[in-house]
Amino acid sequence: MPEGDTVWLAAKRMNTALSGQTLRRGELRVPQLAATDLKGRTVAEVVPRGKHMLTRFTDGWTLRTHYRMDGSWHIYRKGARWRGGPAFSIRAVLATDQWDCVGYRLHDVTLVRTTQEDTVVGHLGPDVLGPDWDLDEAVRRLRSHPDEHIGVAVLDQRNLCGPGNLYKVEGLFVCGVHPWMRVADVEDLPGLVERTRALMLANRDRPEQSTTGDLRRGRDHWVYGRKDKPCYKCGTSILRGDQGPDLQERITYWCPTCQATDAAVDPLARTGEPDHPRPLTSAT
Ligand SMILES: [Zn+2]
User: Which of 61, 66, 86 is nearest to 6 (CA)?
Assistant: First the structure.
């Protein structure tokens, strides 16, 4: 699943391949931009902004693309076979004399004036992996909705941008915070944000996403994807449930012991009814 660190690494590689280069081929395979030919434009730089990728051209235009749940950019040496998926899933091709950058299943493919990038990314909170990261501002935005559940608030890119579901889940575990705790009740909110950021920083230069420090499959996450398995710290079975507004629910995992919370804020403990969160019956 793409997270901010995935986009960060992809943008870094794309920037190495494309910056200063003139496109020999530049296709956007989305209906509203199908007639746009980027051939002949020179790439100034490629930068990540949360889970958005901004490819800036020297003529003052920016191509914005978004990964959402399933998108990705692949970089191939000229002449190598493209292997990111079927041709119909390709949304963009940016090619130079040396490299083919191919965007699969990208979303929100948009061309905007570079001076007007704010119209597409201006709503985002401080970028966890950005050079202008601002902890105080991120915490201020989180605290402006004190009744929001922390597991929802951390994923809201208007508060801080970059973290996806994996780092949300793991950051909450590492800090011992229950996903359904109110923002106002989180004892050390700056600490939670900084620990979540540290997990992303530790992974941004590699494709693996380990939050335990162990890169072995099955040992790389504390609770994410580990429903019913014993917690590495205390042995309690890991729980799994849906969290978030209708239609945007994300699967969350937590250890009911390490992330124990006051019964008053634990919906399972308070009601005894598994309506919210709803534990899932299907396997991970
Ligand atoms: Zn535990």
Answer: 66
